[in-house]
Each structure stands twice: as C-alpha cells, then as structure tokens.
Structure prediction request, 757 residues.
Amino acid sequence: MAQTAKSVIGRPVQVKVVQNGNEIAATAVKQINYHIMGYYPITPSTEVAETLDSMKAAGEHNVSMIPGDGEHGAAGICYGASTAGGRVFNATSANGLLFSYEQLPVQSGTRFPMVFNIVTRSVSGPLDIRCDHSDIMLAMNTGWVILMAADAQAVYDMNIMAPKIAEDMSVRLPIFVAYDGFFTSHQKRRIEIFEDAQVVRDFVGPFVPTASTVDPANPVTIGSYMNDPDYINNKKQQAEAILRANDVVKRVFNEYEAISGRRYDVLELYRMEDAEAALFILNSAAETAKEAVDALRKEGLKVGLIRPNLIRPFPIEEVRAALKNVKGLVVADRQDNFGAYGGAMAIEVRAALQGLADNRTQIAAKVFGLGGKEFFVEDAVAMLREAVEIAKTGKVEVYYDYVGADPGDSSYKAPKAFNPLSEAEVTGLITVEEKDGKLDVKGNILRNLTERPSRITQGHGACPGCGLTASINAFLKGIEGHVVTLWHTGCGMIVTTGYPWSGHRSTYIHNLFQNGAATLSGVVEMFEERKRRGEIGKDEKITFIMITGDGGHDIGMGPSIGAVMRNHRMIICEYDNQGYQNTGSQLSFTVPLGQSTSTSNYGPFQRGKGTHHKDTTQIFAACNSPYVCQAAESNPRDLIRKAAKAQKYAEEGVVFVKLISLCTLAWRVEERIAIPCVQAAVDSCFFPLYEVERGITTINYDPEEQGKKIPVSEWLKTMGKTKHMLNPEMKEALDRFQAEIDRRWIRLKEMHKNPYL
Prediction:
C-alpha cells in the first residue's frame, strides 16, 4: 500500500507506505542493494529475512541471502563477506546477538564495516521473547557504532544512513541499528520512503573496500597475531575511529535531512528549554513519555524528555549541555546491569557528568518494561514526578529501583497440580534382553501401554493435530522408570511450559539449541559423581533424554556430536518437523529440496530450498553411536519398541532417535489426514523406518516388500506446503528429489544386506 507524498522543490520524491519496522528495514536493504545478507531466524527479527526472501522470489532485489547454521555461523558469514570487499547486512535479536558475540569484536577490531539490525528482545533465561534492551546493552562494548531507532520511520532512515556512517574512511567500523521488538518491529505505521531506489544508492554511494580477500594481485593478511605493544596501538586506533564517528554521524544526519526533510540529532530533546526535571529514556517508550511531559507541563511543572538516537559513541557533550539546568533526572532503562545499581544508560549518564564542577543534576535509576511489560503514560508521570521531587529537595530518596515489578505474597504456596510419577506407575511392562548380539523387546502391547500415564500431561498449548506431543508421549511410553528430560528451545518447549504452569510430570530442563547436549552431559556426570560419593543412592536409576527439533540440529549438531564423543549415558531424541516451526516455518537444513518456507520462498525468481535435507540419523551412525533409529507415530509399536531399545543402549553411551513430526500449520495438512500423511512419508521411503545397532543396519519396514511403495509425489500431494512441486516448472527439482530419495533408499538396503556397510 503506497500513496504519493507531496514533493518538495529540490528534494527527491517520497511516497507513503504502511509497513512495520521489520518490513521497512527490508525495504531499506532492498533499496541499498546489499551484496550479502547472512542470517539465522530468531523472533522478533526473523521478519526482516522473511520479507527480503519473499521480495527476492518476486525478483525485487539481488541481495544474496545466506542462511547460517546458527547466529554464530551467520555472523561468520557476514565477517567473511565483508573481508571480500562488499556491503553486508544482518538482523537478529536477544540470544542470537549473544551467540554472535564472539564475532563482534573481531568485526570491529579488524575494521570491516557492515550493518546489523538488532530487534531488541529479552535475553534468556528464563526464556521470554518480548521487548527489552538487555541484548543491545550487552553489545555496547564491542566497538560497534550504535544507532537507536525510536519508530518505524527511524528504522528506515537510520538503515539508509548506517552504511554511509560505517563506511566513512575516517570510521570504517560496523554499526548496529537497534529498534524495539514487537513495539516497533511488528506495528504497522505510515512511513515515507524514497520512490526511486537510485536516490538511496546515490546517497549511500558505492562501496569502497580498503582491502579484499579475493584480490590475488594484492594479497592481504587479516586478523594477524599481535604482541602487546602492537595490540594496544591497534585498540588506540580503533578507539579514535569510534570517537570520530560522533562527527560523522552528525554530518550524515544533516546530509540526510537535506534530501528527506527529516531531522535527526544525536539527542532528541523534548520541552527541555527550561526544564528543571527530566526523564532520560530510549526508543519507543519516549513517545509515551512525551504525553506525560505535556500533562505535567499543564500543571506548571518544568519537565522535559531526553532520548538519544546514538549511544555509541556516547554523546557526552550533548548530554552535559542538555542537563546543564536540570536538577532532578530519572534515567529509565529497559535493562539492568545487575549489581551496578542501574541499567547501562544510568551508568553512562552518571559517568558523563563526572568531573563537572558546576553539575547540579541528581540522578535516580529505574528499570522498567522488562520482557515487554507495557509502559503507560501513568508510569512516565510517576517517574517525572520523582524527578520533580529530586529537583525540589536536592536529594535522591531511591537511588535505584524497578518499576512495575510485583513482589507477590511471600506466604503464598502454589497448589500441586498433580503428583510426580511414581516408579511403579512407569515400570514393569517392558523388558529388553540381549539376543544374538542385538536387543529383543518384550511386553510392547499397546493396549497395556495406553494405561501407562503420559509424562506430558493434557493442557499443553500445541496446535490441534501437532505430531510433536503425540510422538514424544508415545516414545516415552517405551521408557521404564524415572526420566529427566532436557528440551531445546522449540515448539515442544514453548507449548508445555507456559509459566507458571508445566505440562511435565517429571523433571524438565530447558537450554538453548547450541548447548543442550553439553548441559545434559553436565547433569549426567554430576548424577554419577554424586552416586560415587554416596550423596545419591547407588541403586538410583534415571534415564536422561535430550529432546530437540525445530531445526535444533542445525545450531546444536556440534554439541550433540561432542556428547557422543564423550560417550555420555543419554538419549538424544529429535522430532523432525522440517523447519524452524516455532518461529514461523523458516528455512532449516532439515527442509527437503524444493520445499517452500518463509525464508526459502517459491516464486518466479526462486524455487524454494535449493539443497537436499540433512540426514542426521546417518551422521550419528557415522559417529559410532551404539544405537540410532528412525520411527514414526503411524507405526506406534515400532516406535515404542525402539524407545525401549534406546533406553537399554543408553547404558553404553549416547543413542539417537529420530521421529518424523508432522506440523499441521506449517505443512498445511488437515488434522484428519495427519497419520496418512506421515505414513506416505514412510511409504515413499522419504522417511524409512530402520535402526543401526552397534553398526549393523536393519530395515524394520520395507514398503517394497509390502507392495506399498509410492513415488514421493504422492506424499507431496498430501501437504499444502509442497503442492507447488508438482507444477511443470518444478519437474527438474522433483526429479532430483525423487532421485536422492531413491539413492538413499538403495544405499540403506545395501547396508541392511551387508553388516560391514
């Protein structure tokens, strides 16, 4: 939706569009025409990549979209691309930024510019996906320039100004553009943009590399080892560069005003001309706070507002000038520097005023809005009234405090929703015995097992028809005795643990994709060590299970393989729903060839995913895990039998179980045909049912022998997400997909025949 804005003589034509912050960031990226975007999906920043990928499928830009295997990998892609002499972009949030953290000082320390949008979000743990500033504030000391975009218009404008600032020859540093998750990223606004993208490209100018790793005529060394005297000199040069950015930012702001008519200053001052009391606050909350300023001005109170557009380098001189006549100041942070008596901005403002002989400003630090907690005009009024009281008395009664936190009733005891499962309730139905070098399972009778209580209770928030809870509960039916489960971030974790409730009747742990297996290794080792020391009964038995999915074995594959190498006693169970479904069905390496996701769109200029899906089962088999297998809920007895074998084999080391897990929402499958859809995946040999015991492969269900084998196109017909693969223009991709499935199936049959394969 766009409408033409009135043109101003001497300025390029602008049009009005209605977009949210993420969409308008993508629009700016498209207009700039970056060379590379390295990315990885994480809420609430994922829409930036989704929008750009949709645009690319429609032929609207030429930006090369490169999915990482995690945010750390995405940051590495961006760094590598920036050393090769082009313009680079990325976007992430929260723990994604932290997972990139190791790469950030490398990028700035070697002086390669790029633009990185941070859609601010709470940092885990515990897990929360709403807005605060705990992510961007943790990145303040990485040597990057940081712009703060208060609204969607600023997101567009700052994204256009950012590369010009970062690439200035006196700066040559990477730059963040940070804006509020959900408040700015997802709210639609009317925004003015340049009608002609060439205006943007002319403003930014061509990228001028200072060095290139792809110029054989001029070889370079990047990231060399430095001794002490050289290193401190390098840091001194970097420090001077970011301080020079202060003047460059102001100059670029002025140049942008000339073509857009929109003025940005490093500090936005609202009614500060005679203010004696003020509020210092960041981003979207400032718009709410302006209403509070207006209300108190009507009462005759001299109050004002300060909001920075730039926080690195910190605008010390401008802050000092703005506070010259202010006696009482409240600095409100959407983040806390724990133990420092205030958030990052409170610390920065206090530091800025140190050493001023005539400083009269007394400061109170407030922490507000964590985890996306709403900030109301009344909250801002209360902060400003406190600033007025400080100005009047010259005293700060409360130096540091949280706003909006509820201490609760310390005498309250939560009622027990259900009793923990007793060992007797989950023991005694299944036995596993050694037979001819393999394990034989007895007692796998579905009628009896249905009476065994589920370890994940009713009341979870999964979508109707979700294969995840059904598959995992069926798998857990085959596990005898006590269990401890660790869940990666994903649908399974989110829908079963909405605080203050839990759908788990046994001990549950959460950790992020990239460290789940290592975390469970620590649990297993501590359990065994405490048994050895006599702190836990020597006969105590617990089965430890890590459950992953939603692409978790993209980021998490390395740590999982590390657990296999350590030979820890655990089960790794992967529910394969072929995408990052918990964040909106983005591209994962588990997505099959040609299939469409929100970051591998199907369109005139793009044909879905361009590579084959990752075979994690064979990866774990190649690691010499004592037992790996694939199972499906459409074959429940086989699934439960494999769970029982997995528990027994876990006494020898890490075992791996892979379950196909239908996602009705992302796969676009009616709930009533969920099981036939899963069975079609099995019958087409896309997801064969087999196991590898101590290196020996056995196919458990052969659709060819049963006369039930079908072409993969029959499976694709059952899903809305894959029907485009049956279009004539997708014939080549469909043939490649069928050929790869046939190749893997033939190879598996040969392994089944020959114990040495």
The longest helix spans residues 228-260. Residues 1-5 have pLDDT under 50 and may be disordered. The chain has three domains: 4-207+227-260, 267-402, 461-753.
